[in-house]
């Protein structure tokens, strides 16, 4: 069996975040669920230092409310810098960020914001793995509408 680890999930209540939490808990890990509803704001930094105490790994699946390029870029770059800064102080050893397949082919919109997200994440002091996922099934209904 895998060793029990303390893992923080940023965006723990989201479409993907809630499944990440479920899988980690089923694997016996100690999960710190981070979202504004649990008092942790990765953009403003509120509650981040306390949440990351003793955490070994952070999985970043947080996203802001706006898909517009400028707002999304501001969200992701601020969150990435804060996660690195607070994570470094807390002794976090690695981070995983969920991105989107093919985002580097976009020069505008949300895809470009994801490229900026990846870039700032990969530039920080903590080793980061980028996992590019396909669009989730929930978007089919939105597209049809
Ligand atoms: N959806 C897709 O099809 C898809 C595909 C590939 C990759 N991705 C990537 O996967 C990630 C998650 O996407 P999603 O669709 O699961 O997002 P989502 O359902 O909109 O969930 C966003 C999460 O972020 C949290 N959040 C928002 N602002 C926050 C803040 N300032 N501080 C802390 N937490 C905050 C939200 O909780 P609160 O509101 O309580 O703070 C929520 O838990 C994103 O990076 C996205 O680009 C998504």
Could you characterize the architecture of this molecule?
The protein is of the alpha/beta class and 145 residues long. The chain has one domain: NAD(P)-binding Rossmann-like Domain (Rossmann fold), CATH 3.40.50. 40% of the residues lie in helices and 19% in strands. The protein is built from five helices and five strands; from the N terminus they run βαβαβαβαβα. It has a five-stranded parallel sheet, sandwiched between helices. Helix 3 runs parallel beside helix 4. The longest helix is centred in the middle third of the chain and has 22 residues. The radius of gyration is 15 Å and the shape is globular. The mean pLDDT is 95. Bound molecules: NADP nicotinamide-adenine-dinucleotide phosphate. The site of NADP nicotinamide-adenine-dinucleotide phosphate (NAP) has 27 residues, from strand 4.
Topology:
Blueprint: E1 6-10, H1 17-26, E2 30-34, H2 48-51, E3 57-60, H3 69-90, E4 94-100, H4 109-123, E5 128-133, H5 138-144
Parallel strand pairs: 1-2, 1-3, 3-4, 4-5
Bound molecules: NADP nicotinamide-adenine-dinucleotide phosphate.
NADP nicotinamide-adenine-dinucleotide phosphate binds at residues 10-17, 34-37, 40-43, 61-64, 98, 100, 114, 133, 135-136, 139.
Which key terms come to mind for this protein?
alpha/beta, 40% helix, 19% strand, binds NADP nicotinamide-adenine-dinucleotide phosphate
In short:
The chain has 145 residues and is α/β, with parallel strands linked by helices.
The secondary structure category is alpha/beta
CATH topology: Rossmann fold
Question: What small ligands are held by the chains?
Answer: NADP nicotinamide-adenine-dinucleotide phosphate
CATH architecture: 3-Layer(aba) Sandwich
Number of domains: 1
Low-confidence stretches: none
Evaluate the radius of gyration: 15 Å
Q: Roughly what fraction of the amino acids lie in strands?
A: 15-25%
> Major sheet: size, sense and barrel closure?
5 strands, parallel
Could you give the distance between the termini? 45 Å
CATH superfamily: NAD(P)-binding Rossmann-like Domain
Name the helix and strand elements from N-terminus to C-terminus, one letter apiece: EHEHEHEHEH
Write out the strand line-up for the largest beta sheet, numbering strands in chain order: 2-1-3-4-5
């Amino acid at each position: 069996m895998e060793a029990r680890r303390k893992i923080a999930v940023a965006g723990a209540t989201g479409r993907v975040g809630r499944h990440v939490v479920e899988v980690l808990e089923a694997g016996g890990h100690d999960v710190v669920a981070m979202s504004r509803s649990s008092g942790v704001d990765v953009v403003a930094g509120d509650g981040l230092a306390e949440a990351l105490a003793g955490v070994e790994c952070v999985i970043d699946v947080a996203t802001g409310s706006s898909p517009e390029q400028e707002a999304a870029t501001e969200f992701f770059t601020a969150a990435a810098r804060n996660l690195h800064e607070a994570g470094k102080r807390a002794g976090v050893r690695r981070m995983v960020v969920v991105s989107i397949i093919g985002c580097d082919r976009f020069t505008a919109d949300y895809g470009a914001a994801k490229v900026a997200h990846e870039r700032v994440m990969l530039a920080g002091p903590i080793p980061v793995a980028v996992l590019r996922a396909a669009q989730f099934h929930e978007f089919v209904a939105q597209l049809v509408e």
